[in-house]
Design goal:
The complex is a heterodimer. Chain A is an all-alpha fold. Chain A has eleven helices and no strands. Chain A has one domain. In chain B, a hairpin with a 2-residue loop joins β1 and β2. The chains are: A mainly alpha, B alpha/beta.
């Protein structure tokens, strides 16, 4: 019954002495996780293509129809008042959805695939895993989102130049372009927090998109000044202020105040996600 | 060494693990047995800190799993549930785990070679067969060269060669003084692999002893006796304190599982009749027969298989059993 192994199985480590892993090891591991799954890579590529592509396409379309009497009017006034807000807004409006999806996927695929069990066996204190994931994802996003923001601006500004000249040296423009990258980065964290709270891909994506696209529409219907206040403090409404150069009509918060409110939303959701991650069975 | 003390886990109103206490010693393979739903996987998840218990503790060399620095270097685990991304390659799966523990990249390739996956290391794990996934899981468990191993149904989906490989691996690792806890529903696999058995049913401890003891204790042993003079032998045995049942009817499931003997035994030859004797061993029966000059055609001790011992031990604690009542009556819902 008991047979000796035909070939001795050696599980002892032959490679040299290993060091104790700290945060550096966890960051490396999270980077390996992100880059080794196709869905995250493709979503990032989609983000770049959609955002810059839509900025170019919609701006070109607007310029081509500039003298068409049907499209002239209030729209033009807004573009003239805040050309950088228009250029960035056209691409970000849909481009931000890919960031929402990506932020959710980065954490929910761990649950749907079961990798979360391997991850938490490796990091049983759990919170360091979440922190490392956030840091790697934020670092990746800030680089990519700023690149996309500046590319979108240069493409859009060049197309718009004949109608409304705009440059980085105009007041508020540099802040708006940098702000667009910051907004998209924090939006990724916002989506990751909701993904960590809900743990299911479909439910989390629906919730994030609801918060970003649907809530502003609903809150816009609220009457009176309290309705306007609720509207102003919603995550997307407050966060998006940072990529407009000039205040919109009836704007209650300054660009940085708005961005601060958005960061606060994100921080609260992340804190809730961390507490639940620690307490829930994996 | 794994020490489980008063461990209790409830999911809603269902008690999955109920005041469980046992110790897994190093240097031997400890089998973890129980019917489906007995709480084996939950117990392992509690030891590994994936689930949090309502009461009790599970420690590894005196420490909670979550307090271990670089835990994969101390404890390796293969869970029954899948824990790898189908879109990630085998190598990247091991690589990120190694990075969390500060293990060198070379260790990843070493493990891939050990489990025989080096040729498919760059392939997506989603395309792996059950056996290949299981091998990748074992590579992940052994990555940190751990002193303690928890394996939940490790031979699931493996071909006979793979089963033999796992069996030898576990014996070898135990021989190196490591602590090994392995769950399985294959009793006969445990009989040849485990030195010690922990049997649970409905989340409660049923047995904690050596494999040989569990087999011995599980079922009453009997002896098959064939004689042309059954009346005289029955009288002799009964007088000496044994019990005799008539022939094939009483042979029971023990004989049926013994593949060398067809059901009911060979057809009686020369008018010899088959008796089943309990409460007396074969040697004593032989002595009695010799002293009275009774001819015996057959004298065969019937050993219970581990399967039967297991059924005996856990009958009444089957979570999804066919009986409607709860004969143990020991569920303590709401009492804690």
């Amino acid at each position: 019954m008991t047979t000796a192994p035909a070939t001795p199985i050696n599980v002892r480590s032959k490679t040299g002495a290993s060091r104790l892993a700290g945060l550096g090891g966890l960051l490396l591991a999270e980077w390996t996780k992100i880059r080794s799954v196709r869905s995250t890579v493709w979503t990032l590529i989609l983000f770049v293509v959609v955002t810059i592509g839509l900025t170019a396409g919609l701006t070109a379309l607007t310029v081509a129809n500039w003298n068409n009497p049907q499209s002239a009017g209030r729209g033009h006034a807004e573009i003239v008042a805040d050309p950088v807000g228009f250029v960035l807004g056209t691409g970000i409006f849909l481009g931000q959805l890919t960031i929402c999806v990506l932020g959710v996927l980065v954490i929910t695929t761990e649950y749907s695939s079961g990798v979360i069990r391997a991850s938490l066996l490796a990091v049983p204190k759990r919170i360091p895993m979440l922190v490392a994931k956030l840091m790697v994802f934020a670092a990746l996003l800030i680089v990519l989102a700023e690149l996309v923001a500046f590319s979108s601006f240069y493409v859009g500004a060049a197309l718009l130049h004949s109608k409304v000249p705009v440059s980085l040296s105009d007041p508020g423009v540099t802040r708006a372009v940098v702000g667009a990258g910051l907004y998209l980065t924090v939006l990724g964290m916002f989506a990751l927090a909701i993904g960590a709270l809900i743990r299911h891909t479909a439910g989390a994506i629906a919730t994030v998109i609801g918060a970003v696209l649907v809530l502003p529409i609903l809150s816009g219907l609220l009457p009176g000044s309290w309705g306007a206040h609720i509207d102003a403090y919603l995550p997307e409404q407050s966060g998006s202020l940072v990529y407009g150069a000039h205040p919109r009509l009836g704007q209650l918060l300054s660009p940085w105040e708005g961005f601060g409110v958005f960061c606060l939303w994100t921080a609260l959701l992340l804190a809730a996600a961390a507490v639940l991650l620690k307490r829930r069975d994996a | 060494m794994i020490e489980v003390r008063g461990l209790t886990k409830r999911f809603g109103s269902k008690t999955a693990v109920d005041d469980l206490t046992f110790t897994v010693e190093p240097g031997r393979v400890t089998g973890f047995l129980g019917p489906n739903g007995a709480g084996k996987s939950t117990t392992m998840r509690l030891i590994l800190g994936l689930d949090l218990p309502q009461h009790g503790t599970a420690t590894i060399d005196g420490r909670l799993y979550r307090d271990l620095p670089n835990p994969l270097r101390k404890v390796g685990a293969l869970l029954e549930a899948k824990s790898m991304h189908s879109g990630r390659s085998a190598r990247n799966h091991l690589l990120f785990l190694a990075q969390t523990q500060g293990l060198p990249t070379g260790r990843v390739d070493e493990m891939l070679a050990l489990v025989g996956l080096h040729d498919v290391a760059a392939k997506r794990a989603g395309g792996f067969s059950l056996g290949m996934s299981q091998r990748l899981g074992i590579a992940a468990a052994l990555l940190g060269d751990p002193q303690v191993l928890l394996l939940d149904e490790p031979v699931n989906g493996l071909d006979p060669e793979g089963v033999l490989w796992i069996r030898n691996l576990m014996k070898q690792l135990a021989g190196q003084g490591r602590t090994i806890l392995v769950s399985s529903h294959l009793m006969n696999e445990m009989a040849v692999t485990a030195d010690h058995l922990i049997v649970i049913g409905k989340g409660r401890l049923i047995a904690d002893s050596s494999t040989a003891e569990v087999i011995a204790r599980g079922t009453e042993k009997s002896v098959r006796v064939r004689t042309p003079d059954p009346a005289r032998l029955t009288a002799l045995i009964t007088a000496a304190g044994g019990s005799v049942a008539d022939g094939a009817a009483a042979v029971g499931s023990a004989a049926r599982l013994d593949s060398t003997v067809p059901p009911g035994g060979p057809a009686p030859a020369n008018g010899a009749e088959l008796l089943t004797v309990t409460n007396m061993d074969a040697a004593r029966i032989g002595e009695l027969a010799a002293s009275a000059s009774v001819v015996l055609h057959e004298l065969t001790p019937q050993l219970a298989s581990l399967e039967e011992a297991f059924m005996e031990l856990t009958s009444g604690s089957l979570e999804f059993g066919i009986h409607g009542t709860d004969p143990t009556g020991t569920r303590r819902e709401g009492a804690l």
